[in-house]
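Quick start: what a row looks like.
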Amino acid sequence: MNPPVPVPPLVKDPEAGEDFFVEALARGLAVIRCFDEQHERLTISEVARLTGLTRATARRSLLTLCALGYMATDGKQFWLTPRILSLGHAYLSSTPLPRLLQPVLEEVSGQLGESCSASILDGGEIVYIARAATRRVVSVGLGVGSRLPAYCTSMGRVLLAALEPAALEAYLARTPLRPLTPHTLTDPARLKQELARVRAQGFALVDQELELGLRSIAVPVQNARGQVLAAMNIGVQAARVSPEELLGRMLPVLRQAAASLVPLLGI
């Protein structure tokens, strides 16, 4: 897979005014987002390059995070500490959605013998908020908090298909559609057509567009008003499971599972 996109420069909301915006907090969060599977340890200069911050500002942010216990350093490189998990745990413990989804994902995974996941849309990416895994089907390890591009994933397409037209246009305008495999759909017009089809049929099937050898199928998770709150999917190895089996055997199970959540998700 392609290396992660560098953290974008900090942008203020021009309509909200200046008084609300705390630059130091925004910079600290940008620094935290630099660290991932490909960037486990970084120098000050590398953090500055990835965030667009000056070296002095990156250094102050890193040392502050070290003082608070969220990072550690050997004097040259910096890395995250386990305390950083408390930030993600705050979200998971403060919203009922992951707790409601987890037993349903485990039931689907147990019934089909495949990994089942749920995600939400965050900017141009999907973020995993619950997962029941049976085996690794992609080269990178996926878990709660993992992020993947929305345009070439089944859950991402379900969530993009639920956007209002203006929001979808804004997404397409700011998102480069990079070819992660020879099968990746990278033409914006064709992607819009595919999203319209996903919206009409109520599911998305993506065949080896994120990674060669991976197929997945996803459905929306909706409340009683039809609002799409999340997406859930099954991911399989292409050598073992055909598209026809995904549609014929696994899609009905996913749909039934999503339907069972509607009464629990309010109105």
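That is the whole record. The two ends are 39 Å apart (CA to CA). The chain is about 40% helix and 20% strand.
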